[in-house]
Design a protein that fits this description.
alpha/beta, Mg-chelatase_DI-like
């Protein structure tokens, strides 16, 4: 008889949050921050790690590198600026790069990307921001990263956001949520982790 150590597989959850000036960025940000802190409290016991990218103006930034430290999470998330345009393509590219790095170090992690946005890109990396978003999502899908799109575009007759289209084309999970709260985000994440 030999002892076999069971290796626990960790989930790496990356929040990708739209911090642009479009509708309710502050409220979206508060809901996302609350969810992150709540999931960090949970993550420590389960060996999961949580990270966050915020995107606004002309670029996406890794605000919180993957961690299971609640203190670090709270410290880095404290003063997040909001406002400006929506560089959605850069957000997807940066997310892909972050996960690609982690998966090279540890191919056994479960990569989960949660994007909270109204999916109305208006900043290009070079020239065509819609094509750039689709190209980046294609790479993400090929890398088999689990993607959840939380669409906060307000209900109206005219749909401008491309969230549903991305979900349909690449098989991403899609939620349309008008009134985003910390609890709705936490529940979506917990469903994914069970």
């Amino acid at each position: 008889m030999e002892k076999v150590r069971e290796k626990k597989i960790s989930s790496y959850i990356l929040f990708v949050v739209d911090a642009s000036g479009s509708m309710g960025a502050m409220r979206r940000m508060e809901a996302a921050k609350g969810a992150i802190v709540s999931l960090l409290l949970d993550a420590y016991q389960k060996r999961n790690k949580i990270g966050m990218i915020a995107f606004r103006k002309d670029k996406a930034e890794l605000i919180l590198p993957f961690t299971s430290s609640v203190e670090l999470g709270e410290k880095l998330l404290k003063d997040l600026p909001t406002g400006g345009k929506t560089p959605l393509a850069d957000a997807f590219v940066k997310s892909y790069e972050v996960f690609d790095r982690e998966l090279r170090k540890n191919p056994n992690i479960i990569p989960i990307m949660i994007v909270i946005s109204d999916f109305k890109p208006n900043v290009a990396i070079s020239k065509d921001y819609i094509k750039e978003v689709f190209d980046a999502c294609e790479k993400i899908a090929e890398r088999e990263i689990n993607v959840v799109l939380i669409d906060t575009e307000p209900q109206s007759f005219i749909k401008i956001g491309i969230g549903k289209e991305l979900a349909d084309r690449f098989g991403f999970k899609y939620y349309k949520i008008d009134d985003l709260s910390k609890d709705t985000i936490v529940n979506i994440c917990k469903d994914l982790l069970n």
